[in-house]
Design brief:
Blueprint: H1 2-22, H2 26-31, E1 33-40, E2 47-49, H3 51-64, E3 65-76, E4 82-92, E5 97-110, E6 113-120
Parallel strand pairs: 1-6
Antiparallel strand pairs: 1-2, 3-4, 4-5, 5-6
Length: 121
């Protein structure tokens, strides 16, 4: 039962973070992350490290793109991470559709906060 409660708490954390991201409540999402979070830079490539770098990355991203993510399912991986199947829709600022796809976001959660995220196609 304890494992189920952990998974449930992690799913709730990730669901709240996704909803806040879609509302552009950057500080709310950052509050769900560890200070030294390791985050993918899906727009420019590479990774960003730390909350300030994630904040700066998202500000650049939101100036160019309007992206929404909708979690569809959550799975615990063998290494303990949580894989989230996500429907991602991205438009440019003129409204043109850039991407409408399913991807997987894989999260490492440590001490109740997001430590790392990876994007799988």
């Amino acid at each position: 039962m304890a494992e189920l409660q952990v998974v449930s708490a992690e799913i709730e954390l990730l669901s709240r973070a996704s909803a806040a991201f879609n509302r552009r409540e950057i500080e709310t999402v950052l509050a769900a992350m560890q200070a030294n979070v390791d985050w993918p830079n899906g727009m420019e490539g590479g990774r960003v490290l730390g909350k300030a770098a994630v904040r700066d990355y998202w500000r650049r991203q939101f100036e160019l793109l309007d992206s929404k993510v909708e979690p569809k399912s959550f799975t615990r991986e063998a290494d303990g991470r949580i894989a989230v199947d996500v429907h991602q829709v991205v438009h440019d600022k003129s409204g043109k559709l850039v991407a409408d796809q399913r991807v997987q976001h894989v999260y490492e959660i440590r001490d109740g906060l997001i430590r790392n995220m990876e994007i799988r196609s």
